[in-house]
Structures are given as C-alpha cells and as structure tokens.
Amino acid sequence: MRSPSNFSELAAAWRDASVLVVGDALLDGWLAGTPTRLSREAPIPVVALDVTREVCGGAANTAANFAALGARTTLVGAVGDDDDGARLRTCVWDSGVADRLVTAVGRRTVTKRRVVAEEHVLVRFDDGDTGPLPPPAAESVVRRLDEALGERPDAVVVCDHGIGTLGPAVRAVLAARRLGLPLLTVDAHNLAPWAPIGPDLVTPSYAEACRVLGEAAPVAVDEDRIGAIGAARGLLLRHTGAAIVAVTLDAEGSVVMTQNGATAHTSAAPARRSHAAGAGGAYAAGFVLARLAGADIAESAGVAQRCASMAIRGTGTAVCPPLLVRTSETTGKIGVLEGEPA
C-alpha cells in the first residue's frame, strides 16, 4: 500500500500515536532584552531585560515536540528537588506531556540559561548536577520506565545528553524488552553504549557522527560534510547498530542512510545558528511520527526537516507549532500546522 504523500494525511495518520520519551530532562532559560550601552566595569554590553522565559529542554523538549505534533506523550526521567525542578515539571505539564519524572533528593536540576540581545546569544550559563543519579532515584527511573513500557507505546525515544539519568540499568531494561518495542529511536551525544541494543533509528548531529567514527568534527567552514557522511556510511551503520542513521547538518539539512541501501538528503531553510537550540528534538519527532504513519524513508526525512525548520523560526528552544485541533467536517483530515499555508 502506498504511504500518504502529504503532510496533512500523515498528520492525520499519526494523530494520537503513543510515544514514550526517556532521558535527560533539563530546564532551558532565555533572558532577552535590548543592549543599551557598554558597561563601565568591562567592555561588555549592558542588556535591559524585556522577557524571561523558561521552557522544556533536553528530553523534555523532545517530548514537547511530540505532544505539539499530536502524539500522546509520556516522559520518564528525573529532576532535582529544587525550584528549577519544580519549574521544569510545570513546563512539562504545560506542554501536554504526561509527567513520570522522578524527584532525586539532594540533586540540582540541570539548567541552561542564555542571555539574548537583539536575537544574538551573548552568553550561556549551565548549572546543575550531571553525575549519575543517586541509587534510590536511579531505581525509581528504572521502575517507571518498566511500567511505561508495559503500556505498549507505539514508539520509544531515548534522549541521552550525558547528564546522568540513563545508566546501565536503563539500557538493560530496554535490551530485555527490545523484541517488543516496535520503533526504538536513540538521540545521544555518545551512541556507542546504545549500539548493542540495535536501535531502529539514531539521529546524531555531525559532531556526534564524527564521535562515532572516533574523529573530531572538522571546524573548517568549507568542509564537505555531506560527502564525508556519505563516505562513512558503512562505518556509521555498523558502529551505531541502527537500521536507519539520520545525520543532521543544521543549515545543510540532513543525510539519511539505511542498512538496506536506501539514502535520502534533505535541505534546510536558512536560519540563525542561535535559533537552532533543540531543533534535533523537532527533527526526531517528525521522523518518528512519519514512520508510524507509514511514510517511507525519504518522506519521513522530509517531514522531519519540515518540523525542524518550523520549530526554529523564532528565538529560543525549538518546539513545533501545535497541530490544529479541529478537523475538516468533509474529509475528517487534521489541519496543517498553525502558521503554515494550506
């Protein structure tokens, strides 16, 4: 049967899909304002703050993207027992994601706060505990993951940002249940520990793909990244253990390759690099949901790229605009994304 060929049909097919996201949830903060003068203390701008926003980051951002696209989304992870953890929980609830986060006593929630002046990021402050979770919290995460997997989600997405939520016990649970997981996606800074599980899809950035190959990402602006990824196709598939590898390349789109030889390349709309925070979560959400809707590799990559492009239109952590709730009375099809032409 031919898969749906346009975004609205795919969105109607994936609506209400059940997605479980497990991983490193963090709080993203954006302090935006207008530069008024140079400080007398140092040659730095003085920024008069206009807006302060706190939003879902890391695995919470990925979950928020799934929810915005219409999926029934559950988040398993951990937060600290601090004010930032409470604010992150509020952000998760506000995004429409089911909260199965564990509170780790004595732990500080990881936060990333940026100061933005006239859409330029001036500085980022990172805070919080990034070591392994204390044993009681780690055991609670494993229990909640096992419970959530028992509800048979349509897809499982792992978000490993290296801040301590996902240890060997989590990988053991996923490995034990692997045959019963219909679509397992891994988005990880370090993909090596996840390769033995055999993910269906991995979505590394270019730097993360280079890390898989044991190389440092070139910094030259004229580097042929598309060509480099194509040349390393076999190694990437073998070292990640994945059926599909989708390497995201920011302004150059993405390169997608599969074990059966299929390939695809997407193009991206121009955007400021400062707008790309969290774009990987939107890309992964679009790709996974398109696959659940029956799209082929090329279609799924195109949907993923479209979602990422829409998510980074403004300044801040990228989240797709929410799907229209109403459907057509004549066709029953779900509406296109808000702000998109029909």
From TrEMBL:
PANTHER family: BIFUNCTIONAL PROTEIN HLDE. Pfam families: PfkB (PF00294). PROSITE patterns: PFKB_KINASES_1. This is PfkB family carbohydrate kinase. InterPro entries: Carboh/pur_kinase_PfkB_CS, PfkB_dom, Ribokinase-like. GO terms for molecular function: kinase activity. It comes from the Bacteria. The keyword Transferase applies. Keywords: Kinase, Transferase. Residues 37-321 form the Carbohydrate kinase PfkB domain. The keyword DNA damage does not apply.
